Amino acid sequence: MAGEADRDRRRLSRMPNPRVVVAVLALAGMSASFMQTIVLPIQAELPELLDASREDTAWVITATLLSAAVVTPIAGRLGDMYGKRRIALALLAVLVLGSVIAALSHDINLLIVGRALQGAVVGVIPLGISILRDVLHEDRLGGAIALVSATLGVGGALGLPISALVSDNFDWHVLFWLAAGLGVIDVVLVAIFVPVSTLRSPGGFDLLGAIGLALGLSGVLLAASRGNEWGWLSPLTLGLGLGGIALLLAWGWYELRAPNPLVDLRVAARAPVLLTNLASVAMGFALFSSNVAFPQLLELPVETGVGLGLSLLTASLVLMPSGLVMMVMSPISARLTRTIGPRVLLVGGALFLVLSYALSLLAVREAWQVLLINVVIGVGIGLGYAAMPTLIMRSVPASETAAANGLNALMRSLGTSFASAAIGAILAVTSVQVGDAQVPSAEGFRLAFVLGGVAALLAAVLAFFIPRSTRGIERRPSLPDA
Predict the structure, then answer these.
(1) Rounded mean pLDDT of 389-408?
(2) Does 361 reside within a domain?
(3) Type and span of the H or E element at 333
(4) Do 17 and 124 fall into the same domain?
(5) Alpha-carbon span 35 to 44, nearest angstrom
(6) Which end of the chain is less enclosed by CB atoms within 10 A, N or C?
(7) Residue range of the domain that includes 57
(8) Domain of 404: which CATH number?
(9) Residue 482, in any domain of the structure
(10) In a domain? residue 403
(11) Based on the domain organization, do 314 and 426 belong to the same domain?
(12) 156 and 18 in a common domain
């Protein structure tokens, strides 16, 4: 162990160019978020491709969602204990394994296994943010955090047209070989260019807490993601949802008494952390409301009276600028964080989302209008996602940044999951008959935009009440590499 510590310290003394470190972690983050949209172009065709029911193929999406939600906070705690770079490399290796399994699959069960393994890599994003705090000078930290945090949206926005282009011209398995190649590149770059962090959190791993969190989250997220299909009042949905909530309450009781908890709930209950996490749920909901509604609106046939009749590839290109704007906003967000503070930045980002939904209610009759609205969304998310990890890291011990960022990433994921369920239900309930098909109505889209705007406004209000200044705290001593 001493030899390993000496090697790590020698590597740390020869740290690469900070810009290279940031670029590598941003690429890993974009690769992780790309996994969330990689199957969207072939989702409707999966029942035919795999000779499976539509209910079974829905697990190709659900498995990734569950895996990401469960693994992210656990990976954060492991990163604090055993090294963030080490756990990030492990997650990227799991991405490669899952991608190869999916690429070789010809039946639904193997594909679901591969997709579940792919979902685990989302934990790389909060780990990357925590690595930045450990290895970058404070002057560079704001812009780097903004960029890596925004990759949660950037990867999906940029990856969707790539997925559409590949699926239009090649066998669908090529999508997963592409993902495996990205994973290998990420593993090599992180291993070479990202330095180790000598900061460790002491104590053992809370296995019982990890199991409780996994089971509770799985119940709640399964109920939310499959409620439209199973029926919101069905015994299965209610059993999973209420059972998951009960498990999470019991988990919270246990975590408050555990000597080395998976999540330090006393720190998480502090006003800056709690309000930031609640605002993150609302921001995630506001973001994903548009992600659910706009692709359908763009792709529905013109004959429906609401759709714009675009192909998947063209629709993806209309939505892509939001991801580019998020990247451009990174240095701007960093400067704004230094001048007006992350709290005001989060309020401003949420208000940009409110503006985007107000515009959506006024004008979505042309593709260029949807493009403009998505640019506004990109500005809002770029500002908000830059502010959240800064607010979190100012309020937790330095030895717990990965776990705290993992919890914050989980809150965003919960928001997106609830948005997917709620907006999907609204569009389904308000659908109308057009020819032989049921399609979302104009009223359904308006309700979706109203709900997204309300969530964004709630995020702004919660952010407004975050204490104006916070100071880092230290509840546990940090340990050097050993």
Answers:
(1) 80
(2) yes
(3) helix 321-340
(4) yes
(5) 17
(6) N
(7) 1-198
(8) 1.20.1250.20
(9) no
(10) yes
(11) yes
(12) yes
Binned at pLDDT 50, 70 and 90, residue 352 comes out as very high
Tokens of 368: 């260029």
Q: How large is the C-alpha radius of gyration of the chain?
A: 21
Tokens at 115, concatenated:
């997709």
Alpha helices, DSSP H, located in 121-172: 124-135, 138-169
User: Rounded distance, CA 26 to CA 9, Å?
Assistant: 24
Same-domain check for residues 270 and 406: yes
Residues belonging to the chain = 482
How many Cβ atoms from other residues are within 10 Å of residue 287's Cβ? 28
- Asked whether residue 476 carries a pLDDT value surpassing 50, the answer given is no
Neighbours of 431 (CB within 10 A): 15
Partner residues linked to 437 by β-bridges: 434
* CA separation, residue 45 to residues 54, 101, 103, 168, 172 (Å): 9, 19, 16, 12, 10
Instruction: Give the list of residues 6+ apart from residue 78 with CB closer than 8 angstroms, or none.
Output: 87, 205
- Would you place residue 353 in the very low, low, confident or very high pLDDT band (cuts 50, 70, 90)? very high
Burial of 62 (0-12, 13-18, 19+ CB in 10 A): buried
Please give the pLDDT value at position 96. 96
Rounded Cα distance between 382 and 402, Å, is: 21
- Number of domains observed in the structure of the chain: 2
Look up residue 206 and give its two tokens: 């809370």
Which is it for strands 432-434 and 437-439: parallel, antiparallel or unpaired? antiparallel
H or E element at residue 438: strand 437-439
SS3 137: coil
Tokens 């569950």: give the residue. Answer: 66
439, β-bridge pairs: 432
Q: Are residues 190 and 281 in the same domain?
A: no
Count how many Cα atoms sit within 13 Å of the Cα of residue 347 in the half-sphere of its side chain. Answer: 12
Same-domain pairing of 310 and 455: yes
Q: Whose CA is closest to 186, among 89, 87, 117?
A: 89
Can you point out the beta strands (E) in 248-351? none
3-state secondary structure 393-421: HCCCCHHHHHHHHHHHHHHHHHHHHHHHH
- Is residue 222 in a domain? no
